[in-house]
Structures are given as C-alpha cells and as structure tokens.
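User: What would this chain look like folded?
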Amino acid sequence: MFLRAFRAQSLSHKPHFRAIQSPPPPFSADDAFSDVSALIKKPKWQSNPRLETLVSHLSPKSVSRIIASQSGDVPLCLTFFKWVCKKSTYCYDLDSRIQLLHMLASDNLWEVTHKVLIFLIKECCTSKEDILKVTYGIEEMGKIGFRVNYPCYSVLLMYLAKLDLGLIAFSVFNRMLEDGFVLGEIDYRMLVNALCKNGFVQAAEMFVSTVLKLGFALDVHLCTSLVLGNCRAREVDEALEVFDVMSGEGGCGVNSVTYTILVHGLCEVGRLEEACGLREEMSEKGYRSSACTYTVLIKAMCDQGLMDRAFGLMDEMAGEGCKPNVYTYTVLVDMLCREGRIEEANGMFRKMLRDGLSPNIVTYNVLINCYCKEGLVVSAFELLGLMERRHCKPNIRTYNELMEGLCNIGKSHKAVALLRKAIDNGLFPNEVTFNILISGFCKAGQLSMALKVLCAMSSSGVEPDQFSYTAFVDSLCKMGRPEQACVFIGLVVKKGLPVDEVALTALIQGYCKTGRDRYALMLLERMVEDRCLTSPHAFNILLDVLSKEVELVRGNVVLGKMLKHGLAPSVITYTLLADGLCRAGDMAAALRMLELMKEAGCPPNVYTYTIAINGLCQSRKLEDAEDLLVEMFRAAVSPNAITYALLIKSYVAVGCLDRAFELFRTMFKAGLRPNSQTYTALLSGILDIETADSDDSSTHLLFMKIGINHALELLRRVTECGGDPCDVYAFLITGLSRAGRISEAGALIQQMASSGLTLSSDACDSVITSLCIRDEYGLALAWIRRLVAYRHAPSLGSYGSVILGLRREGRTQEAETLVYELVRDAGVKDERVILPYIGFLMKGGDEFCYSLQILDLIGQIGLKERPIL
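Assistant: Here's the prediction, encoded as structure tokens.
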C-alpha cells in the first residue's frame, strides 16, 4: 500500500505525450511467429534484415509467444528480449517492456522472467521514476502468482539504495521477509546505506544493531553509511563522533570515502576551514583525495565567494595528478556565470571539452541561463544546437531558460513556439514554464495572451500559484488599472493562497500611479495592521509620490507609521524625504536631513548627495553645490556622471562655459564616462544658446541648429580636456541621425574611419534606426555594409530591423543574404548549428494566432488519457 501511494504521488502528475504508433503491416501473426521462431535459431540472427523487418511491428503478445516457444534456451530468450526491445516499435519504451514481462510471468516462464527482470532493474539504474515503475510492476505480477527470487530482490535493493529511495528499499526489505528469505550481510548493508542516504539515521542504527545480533561484523562500510546519514541529517557533530570511534583504537578504520563524506558534511553546514583541515589530515595519513573530495571543497569555496581560492585548489588538484571531472567544471562554470563572467565561463566550458569530458545537462543549462540573462539569446540557441549534436537531451529546464530569454527580449510569442518544440520532444511544461510565459506576456502588456496561458495552465493539470496571479497584478497596476488587479488578488484569496507583500506593494504603486494615493495609504495601513510588511519598500513608494507632489506633511505621517511599525528608514526613505524638501525649495531642511542620516547611522549615498546638489543648482547656489561635492569626496562617496552633469549644465546656464569644461576635465580624470546630458549642455554652450533640456524634442532642435563647425569645436575642447573622442563622435552621430541629417553623420563616420577610431554599436544603430523609421530599408542595408567595411559593428537589433523590413517589402533574398553575413561576421564556424535557430527566431506569419493555437493544443493534450499500446 505504501509503495502504491508513493507511486501515485510521484508519477501520476507526469502525463506521457508519446504518439500512438502506426498500425502493423498486414501480415499474419501466425506466419510472423513461425518465421521469427525459425530465424532466431540461426547463427548471427541479430543481423538478419528479414528478421528486423518482421519484429519491427511485433506486439508484446507476439514476442511473449516467441519467447515461450524457446523457453528451454534461457540465454537465447534473454538475448532476444534485449534485441527485440531495441527493434520493435511496441517494445521500445519501459511501459511496454513491463507489459511484456507481465505476459511472460502469466505464461509461467519463471526462469526467463527472473532473468528479464534483473535486466530491466539494471536498465533503470539512473532513473527514480523508471525503477519505481518496475517496482510497482513486480507488485502487480505478484497478484498472478509470480514469486520474485532472491537475486532479483537483492539487485532491486541495491539500485533503490543507489537512487536514494530509502523508504521504498525498506518496503522491499519487508516484502523479502514476508516471502521467507533470509537476508545476508550485504543486504543489510545496502538497506542501512539506503536509509542513511535519506537521513533516516535512527532507523539505520536499528538495523546496525540487528546486524550485530546476527553475528555480522561492524565494518567500515556500515559505519561510513552512518557518517553519511548523520551528515545528511545535518548532525555533523554526531558524524564526527562516529568517525572518531571508527578511527580510534579497536575501531573498524576509515577510508577515503569516509573522509570525503565528512568533508562534504562540514561544507554543507558552512564549516569550510574544518573541512580543509580534514582533507589535509586525509593526505597526511596517506589517503588519496578523489575528484569528488576536491569538487566538494571547490563548491563550498565558490558558495562563499572565494573564487581565487577555488581556482588555487583546482591547480593543487592538477599538481597531485587528480583530473577534474564533469561536476568540478560545472561548479566553476556555474559560479563564473553567477558573477557575470560569461567569457571566463565559456573558456572553462571549452577547456572541459578539450579534456575529453562530456558536459552534462546541468552544465549546458547553467551556460544557457547565463547567455539568456545577458540577452545573448542567439548564442544560447547555438549552445542548444551543440547540446543536441553531442546527444545530450535537453530537459524542460533547458527550454524554460530559453523561453525566459526570449520573453526578456520581447519575443514571448517565440517562447510559445519553443514550448511546442519541447512538447514534440516528449517534455511537458511545469508551473515554472507557464509562469515564465505569463510574466513575459504581462510585461509586454499582452494580457489577453497571458490569460490564455493561465487557462492552458489549468486545463493541462498544472495548478497556478501566487506568482501566476502576482504577474497580472503587477502588470495591471503598471498600466494604471488597479481595480482590475484587485480581481486577481480576489482569485488568490478564493484559492486559499496567501496574498504576499509583492502583490500588495504593486497595488499600492498602481493606486499612486493613478493619483489615488489615499487608497494607497488605506491599503498600507491595512498591511501594517496585518503585519505583512517586511521591508520599507511599500512606504517608500508612497513617499515617492508625496515627495513629487511636495506633500511634506503627509510624507511625515507616512514616516511616522513606518517607525511605529518598527521598520527602520532606509537610505531610499531619507533620500525621498530630502527630495521633497528640495522640491519645496527648503534647502536648509534638506541639508539638515543629510546630517540626520549620518547621526542615524544611515549615511547619504551618491543619489542623496546628487539630489541635494540638484536642489542647490536649481536655487543658483553653485558655490554651495561645489562645497557639497567636496564633502562627498571627504565622505568617500564618489560622484557619478549625473552629479557632474547637473553642475556642468548649471555653469553653462549662467554663462561660465570655461568652468563647465574644467569640471568636465575633473570628471574624466575621476574615470567617469560623460553622458549625453553632459555633451548636450556643453554643445548648447558652444552655440551660445539656452541650455537644451534633456527631453528628446529639445535635443532634436539643438541638432537641427548646429553646424559642422560647432561639432568639431566640441570635439576639440573635449579632447583637450582628456575626453574620449569616440564618445563625442558617437554623441554627435546619434544626434544628427535622429534629426535626419544622415549625410552630416556620414561625414563624421568617414572622419572617424580615417582616424582609425571605432564607432559604438549604439551609434551605428542610430543611423540604421533613423533610416528604418523612414522605411528606407535599401539604404539601411547599404549603410550596414558600409559600417562593417569601416570595421564598425551594428547590433543584432539593427540587423533584425533591416531583415524584417526587407521581408515586408518582399525582398526575401536580400534578407536571407544579410542573415548569412551576420552569421559569418559573428564567427560561427558551423553554420548548420545556428541557422535553424535563427530561422526559428525570424519566422514570420501571424505569431499571435499561431501562439493561440499552440496554447489550445496544450490544453487539449492535458485532457487526453495516456494511450495504451
């Protein structure tokens, strides 16, 4: 009963999407039986083409008849069973093999059935789901009188222990006792090991007592299992006590496995230094550290951010002649990816391949996730192609990472199409898959598609969770529709799920966005009463609105509620209050707020200082603003580009252009890169016109007025201050392109090329985008090739805009040629790997309708019963 309940819980939620097999060819079952029975008696029958044709559509019933006819030759029966499972479309999967095994048992072919059963158990040695199916199949066969023999039980117990299925192993142990078998020492050892792997130490200790009572010796294997069990239960001190008894006088001794398990246990509870000391002791006593020992320590060091130490240990590992394994490399690749060091991660991956190791599914998933987070989705698909070529089958997590990457770059419809590919490959979406799609469509404002995904999620048997509904709440609030967001919060409550702080904070933001801050305050008070606030974020959202509206009194009320609730104001809270005072023109109070922050142990950050400097600049108190800049340096707070931009703009506004350039020089010496606001202010000063605002319309008018002489003057003065001419060129070319002055922009690009300078991809994109906006795709294509000839690099987005534009104009051949050029310039060596995925990403048609059809199909699949073959 326990096994059946466990199986139902573990397997019932995983529907199978195996296509129904084609009907067998029209030949007589009796004829096939006679022919096959005759052919398998001949030498080298496995390579007989006639036999392969006959068995390709043999049903399990027919195979059972053939094996029964050869029951006198058990080795032949087993060989034929193994062979036919590979050749017959009926017997290929595990369910059909178990069905065939059941038929053999029904025919009372006990000896053959036992041999086949051992073969099937060994075939399932890497999959918990598969070995549970076999175990359940054995239970069902018992109902027809089949009695499992001792070798079958023993092998089953061994593999259940290896797969950490301690409770199932215990159930099988009880069945062995019921069937009258006397267990040997090795069986008890495996059972103790299985229980310990699941952390059931007390139960394991009971069996150890039984072992001693039966007269078996307490050996190193049993005691090492107890060390493992205590480590799994995070009782490391208990594990150390067992270790001391083992290594003490009269103890059974320890081995390298015991040390490695204990090192791992210490690392798991954060006792890294003790683990390193134990490894050194291990070496001193002559035990050789394995790749597993090193990998455990390397992972612990990576988890604590000690990357240099981890790489040092890997060098030590190589010095001792111990080669890193797949897991060692995967740990390092994972940590490099988490730190955003994607090039180094890729280098480690390539080194792994050079060492002759085959990356596993985890390695690929880590890298694909990293590429997708960086927006390098095409590179992620290229890795998927490599993965498939190296026969590493992607799992649903692989597709989830890729779908999230597509959603993050605004291609949620492509993510739905990718989901279809995953289903075609026999995978089924989980709650993470659906939530990725819901979030992607919600962020894109396509709520109708997000609702369709939510419906498909429910109909396919995957229950929506908090995250599913919170995505809708967040999106609706950002769109200024908090009332509709409340409907989804109602659904959360109706389903008995807790409404979390994230959803309620989003609702507060929605009310504030629509000017109903009183509703937001009421909701905040309710959250305070219900004690569901853990951070000042919700308070800060309301303070932000009140500060912008210069509602200082109400802002102080909100601050009072925060303090009463026991939440300490963060630096963001103080900064928002200071901003409100600056907007009200009360600079004295704003500067006092900065002093209060220091006294409260929450010193101002760069944003706080920048807001105060902006307030002083607005009040034309430039000397006070510069004094505050000096104070920033004294407080070890480095100004950012915006801080300098505000001061430079203010000096330009009062006609002090030279002082503005002096500040620019200081800024550049500090290692800061000026932003477009800085260059816009300086260019306005050179034209001797009123400083342009930072909005697009004012900047557009500025670039409509300038002449090439003004552009060159800005370039000269910036270069004299030590600025980067490439940045100035990029600023000027971008501005001129957006103003439609492509010829002047082209002249500057040519001047850059003559000087051997490289234009940024953003500036390249501005030229291409300007032409695409005017539907001049032919000219945009010419400009892409011209920029590439100048060794400049337009982004993938520019290529995509031109490619799609050419396709819309019916110039498909030119679009395809540009794709090939893009692949070639990207340095892809094997175009066959990546072109199918670029084709997938560029696929045209009505994506919206196509996505709807796929989602409908998922819903239908979820309602179908599993086919019986």
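Residues 1-27, 857-869 have pLDDT under 50 and may be disordered. If you want, I can go into more detail on any region.
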